[in-house]
Amino acid sequence: MMTRAEFRKLIRERRKQLSADFQQTASEQVIGHLSNLPEIHSSQNIALYLSADGELATPKLIEWLWQQGKSVYLPVIHPFSTGQLLFLHYTPETPMVNNRYGIAEPRLNKELILPTRQLDLIFTPLVGFDASGHRLGMGGGYYDRTLEPWFKNKSGAKPIGLAHSCQFVEKLPVESWDVPLPKIVTPDKIWHWE
């Protein structure tokens, strides 16, 4: 079996081959799936991320959530607690800065922070996923730590992964800290492990 680093390299290369037109169509297909998800209808505070590095494009999804009257929150790397994320309310007027990875995030403003336990859903980015719902991230562990309370006792925000179909592999190498996802949405289907 390939190592996690080898899987990351392979799948990121697959993603980078996707054209802008393909990305737009994929995003629209995912919105079509999400419009039928009960979790969307019952949720108000939804965390998402700004896509980067070939990830499934999220700008249209964010706009769609706003149109549904949902409050959208974006992750910000915690300035003091290593490896932790904060979630800040995001609107079209939110001032943005690039974090240490070159990814745009809201400028830190403590008045815009919503505690993670008050989020209803967290759409999680991922590099790859497998047939058991295991998620391979970028390796920083930010989302594994964020989702740990949900994984341990199903409290707090429910995680749902977003991915392109090409990010699927049959089996990933899994570590003890990895948090499997109950649901992952791709352009062609909704994967369930609940």
List the helices and strands and how they pair.
Layout: H1 4-16, H2 20-34, H3 38-41, E1 45-47, H4 59-67, E2 71-77, E3 85-90, E4 96-98, E5 104-106, E6 121-124, E7 128-129, E8 135-136, H5 142-153, E9 158-162, E10 183-186, E11 189-192
Question: How would you describe what is shown here?
Answer:
- This protein is α/β, with parallel strands linked by helices and 194 residues long.
- It has a single domain (4-187), classed as NagB/RpiA/CoA transferase-like (Rossmann fold).
- Helices cover 27% and strands 22% of the residues.
- It has five helices and eleven strands; from the N terminus they run H-H-H-E-H-E-E-E-E-E-E-E-H-E-E-E.
- The protein has helices spanning 4-16, 20-34, 38-41, 59-67, 142-153; strands spanning 45-47, 71-77, 85-90, 96-98, 104-106, 121-124, 128-129, 135-136, 158-162, 183-186, 189-192.
- A seven-stranded mixed beta sheet has the order 3-2-1-6-9-10-11, with helices on both faces. A two-stranded antiparallel sheet has the order 4-5. Strands 7-8 form a two-stranded antiparallel ribbon.
- A hairpin with a 7-residue loop joins strand 2 and strand 3 (85-90).
- It starts with a helix and ends with a strand.
- 32% of the residues are buried.
- GO terms for molecular function: 5-formyltetrahydrofolate cyclo-ligase activity.
- It comes from Vibrio mangrovi.
- This is 5-formyltetrahydrofolate cyclo-ligase.
- It is an enzyme of class 6 (ligase).
